[in-house]
């Protein structure tokens, strides 16, 4: 007997988002934030994630405006940059991931840091007004915060700071929210990851759903 299952992609999304809106407590999010949180929950398959999502005031509005104005999107990992749905982007925005640049391994050895963190040194020409998406590497978020301690370092328009894991993830996100250098959103604690981060970008790039 063949399995019967939903085969219409739009219907699957519709049903998922309706389930999330029925089950999650989204009351504290504004109209620009709510669709972002819905997509983050959707990517993680985890109602309850909303309790750990923290925006600085106006972050979602600022990120939407930056993307509409053509801001580049700077990603820590290819898993993030590859997940961004290009047709959603409002201004054919550049999506940049420098992790696999051939200069990075030698630079990382010289800097004594991970490739993920070191790759951010190649962001400097693109950083002003950019939307940053860090979904994997805690060291990348820590290094970005260190770069931005220099007042001469160009400022991004917004940071999605959702690295994941057990070493440095919670600490790097706490550091971001303790002194945000620009509008930011995080998922507190160990939770995070490339899929959740991509989902946030894809929501911010879309008209409200
Ligand atoms: C310590 C690292 C962590 N990686 C995690 C989780 C995942 N990483 C995957 C993959 C495929 C990649 N991770 C690298 C970024 C690699 N991961 C690290 C580093 C060693 C250090 C980063 C850091 O601590 O901040 C890092 C290498 C580096 O020198 O920077 C990756 C580049 C490794 C590689 O393939 O060379 C690669 C990224 C590929 C890309 O997309 O461009 C996983 C899929 C794991 C797997 O393969 O099993 C997974 C994905 C998680 C996600 O949602 O993004 C952690 C948990 C973040 C961990 C850091 C924290 C910890 O607690 O250990």
Automatic annotation (TrEMBL):
Coiled coil: none annotated. It is an enzyme of class 5 (isomerase). It comes from the Bacteria. Its EC number is 5.4.99.61. It holds the Pfam family CbiC. Gene3D superfamilies: Cobalamin biosynthesis CobH/CbiC, precorrin-8X methylmutase. Residues 12-206 form the Cobalamin biosynthesis precorrin-8X methylmutase CobH/CbiC domain. Keywords: Cobalamin biosynthesis, Isomerase. GO terms for molecular function: precorrin-8X methylmutase activity. One of its GO terms (biological process) is cobalamin biosynthetic process. Pathway: Cofactor biosynthesis; adenosylcobalamin biosynthesis. NCBIfam families: PRK08285.1 (NF006136). Belongs to the CobH/CbiC family. This is Precorrin-8X methylmutase. It comes from Paracoccus hibiscisoli.
């Amino acid at each position: 007997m063949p399995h019967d299952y939903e085969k219409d992609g739009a219907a699957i999304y519709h049903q998922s988002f309706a389930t999330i809106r029925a089950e999650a407590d989204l009351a504290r999010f504004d109209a620009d934030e709510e669709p972002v949180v819905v997509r983050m929950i959707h990517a993680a398959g985890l109602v309850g994630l909303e309790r750990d999502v923290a925006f600085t005031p106006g972050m979602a509005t600022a990120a939407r405006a930056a993307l509409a104005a053509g801001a580049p999107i700077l990603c820590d990992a290819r898993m993030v940059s590859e997940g961004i749905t290009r047709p959603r982007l409002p201004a054919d925005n550049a999506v940049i991931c420098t992790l696999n640049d051939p200069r990075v391994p030698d630079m990382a050895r010289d800097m004594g840091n991970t490739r993920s963190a070191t790759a951010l040194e190649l962001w400097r020409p693109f950083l002003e007004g950019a939307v940053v998406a860090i979904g994997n590497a805690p060291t990348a978020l820590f290094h970005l915060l260190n770069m931005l301690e220099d007042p001469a370092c160009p400022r991004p328009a917004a940071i999605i700071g959702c690295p994941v894991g057990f070493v440095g993830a919670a600490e790097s996100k706490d550091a971001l929210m303790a002194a945000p250098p620009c509008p930011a959103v995080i998922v507190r604690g160990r939770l995070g990851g490339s899929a959740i981060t991509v989902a946030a970008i894809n929501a911010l790039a879309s008209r409200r759903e």
